[in-house]
Amino acid sequence: MTDAFRLPEALAAWSTEHFIATLKREVKVHSAVRAVLARCMNGFGTIDEPITVMVLGADDQGEIIEARITILYTVTETVYRCPDCSGEDVVHGACEMTIRIDKTSAEALFTVTTQEAR
Q1: Residue 106: pLDDT band with limits 50, 70, 90
Q2: Cα(98)–Cα(67) distance, rounded to whole angstroms?
Q3: What is the three-class DSSP state of 83?
């Protein structure tokens, strides 16, 4: 699954000590990330705030920057147990993504590599 969006601040911070913090911040606030996570969950529940972004590494690949991240999140699901009662279950999930940032346009393409929930 892929989606495209722009990460201009992360691109501007590339090759500085601020890159990881900037990438985390831009990914956390981007609504496209939540949309991808929601699609991965097949529409069950709502992603709770906040999400946690961990940058596992980033490399210069010529015309692109390739970053590997993991997003940790929780989902609150409404569970119907019987006609008269319902409740909520909290599910913790992790989603690994690869982000490829174009160095000329700041357009970023991210690919979900794994998704797991507990």
Answers
A1: very high
A2: 6
A3: coil
Average pLDDT, the chain: 83
Distance CA 82, CA 55 (A): 42
Q: How many CB atoms lie within 10 A of CB 23?
A: 25
Claim: this prediction has a pTM higher than 0.85: no
Cα 105 vs. chain centroid, distance in angstroms? 20
Three-class SS of residue 19?
A: helix
pLDDT of 1: 44
Separation of alpha carbons 48 and 54, rounded Å:
17
Contact between 102 and 28 (Cβ < 8 Å): no
Q: Measured in Å, how far apart are the chain's first and last C-alpha atoms?
A: 21
Residue of 25, 11, 115 lying closest to 70 (CA atoms): 115
